[in-house]
Amino acid sequence: MHRARKRFGQNFLHDAGIIDRIVGSIAPKPGQHMVEIGPGRGALTEPLLEATGGELDVVELDRDLIPILKTQFFRHENLRIHEADALTFDFNTLVTDDRPLRLVGNLPYNISTPLMFHLLDYSDHIHDMHFMLQKEVVQRLCAAPGDNAYGRLGIMIQYYCEARYLFTVPPGAFAPPPKVESAIVRLNPRTTIEYPADDPDKLAVVVRTAFNQRRKTLRNNLKPLMSAEAIESLGLNPGERAENLSIRDFVMLANHLSRTESSA
Ligand SMILES: C[S@@+](CC[C@H](N)C(=O)[O-])C[C@H]1O[C@@H](n2cnc3c(N)ncnc32)[C@H](O)[C@@H]1O
C-alpha cells in the first residue's frame, strides 16, 4: 500500500462530486491532447482517460506511484506515463502534432508558483491549464487592481494568461485533508499580449520593486529605478500605491526603464 508523502505534497482527491465538478469544468473531449501533472493514485486520471477516449500524458515524480498507475491503467495503451519532475520536464517533448496541450493538475502547493512560471515557457503550445491550488494563491492569480490579493504573482501571470477563479474546494475532499482551502483556476495563455513589454524581465523588476513595501507610494518604492518626474511623465501619479496600477501601467513603467537604460 502506497502511503501519502508530505514531501511530494500528496493530498489525494476522494470526493466523487468534486472530481466530477473539476472534470466537468475542464470538459475534455476525444481527440484533445490532455496532460496531467501529478496523477497520484489516478483520481482525475481515470475520468480524463474516459473523456479523451484513452489518450493522456501524465508526469509523476514519486517513483513508487509509477507501478501503481501502470497496474491500474494497464488496459490504456495510449496512456503515456512520464516519471519526471514537472519543474524541469521539457513539455515540448509532448508536442508531436499540431494539437495544443491542455494541462491539468491537482498540484503540490510547494511547487505551484515555480511550476506555473516554468509552464509559461511553453505557452505557445498550451491551449489552457486547470489547476487545483491553495485558495489564497488562486485569489492572487485572479486579483484585479485594488484587491487585497493583487500583487506580483497575479500581474506576472495575467500578463501572459487570462486567469479565472472557478470554484472553492474544501479540505474534506482530500485524503489526508490539507490545512487550508483549495480552489480551481483556469489559465488561458493569451494569443496576443495587448500591451507588450519591450523586455518582460524589466516588467518583473518594476513590479517587484513597486511592491517592495506595499503601503508605500510608487515615488518611494521606485526611487532606485526612476524619479517621481519620470513616473509623472507617463501620466501616472507618483503618490499612488502599486496595488492600484493596471498591468498596462506597469508595462509603461517597464518600457520607460528599458528605453532610458538603453539610451544611457
Ligand atoms: C496533491 S497530489 C494530487 C494527486 C492526484 N492528482 C489527486 O488529485 O488525487 C500531487 C501529486 O503530484 C505529485 N508531484 C509532486 N511533486 C511533483 C513534481 N515536481 N513533478 C511531478 N509530480 C509531482 C505527487 O507525487 C502527487 O502524486
From TrEMBL:
Residues 18-191 form the Ribosomal RNA adenine methylase transferase N-terminal domain. Its main location: cytoplasm. It comes from the Bacteria. It is found in: Cytoplasm. Coiled coil: none annotated. GO terms for molecular function: 16S rRNA (adenine(1518)-N(6)/adenine(1519)-N(6))-dimethyltransferase activity; RNA binding. One of its GO terms (cellular component) is cytosol. SUPFAM superfamilies: S-adenosyl-L-methionine-dependent methyltransferases (SSF53335). Keywords: Cytoplasm, Methyltransferase, RNA-binding, rRNA processing, S-adenosyl-L-methionine, Transferase. It catalyses: adenosine(1518)/adenosine(1519) in 16S rRNA + 4 S-adenosyl-L-methionine = N(6)-dimethyladenosine(1518)/N(6)-dimethyladenosine(1519) in 16S rRNA + 4 S-adenosyl-L-homocysteine + 4 H(+). Its EC number is 2.1.1.182. The keyword tRNA-binding does not apply. It is an enzyme of class 2 (transferase). S-adenosyl-L-methionine binds at N11, L13, G38, E60, D85, N106. Belongs to the class I-like SAM-binding methyltransferase superfamily. rRNA adenine N(6)-methyltransferase family. RsmA subfamily. Specifically dimethylates two adjacent adenosines (A1518 and A1519) in the loop of a conserved hairpin near the 3'-end of 16S rRNA in the 30S particle. May play a critical role in biogenesis of 30S subunits. PANTHER family: DIMETHYLADENOSINE TRANSFERASE, DIMETHYLADENOSINE TRANSFERASE-RELATED. This is Ribosomal RNA small subunit methyltransferase A. The lineage of its organism: Bacteria, Pseudomonadati, Pseudomonadota, Gammaproteobacteria, Oceanospirillales.
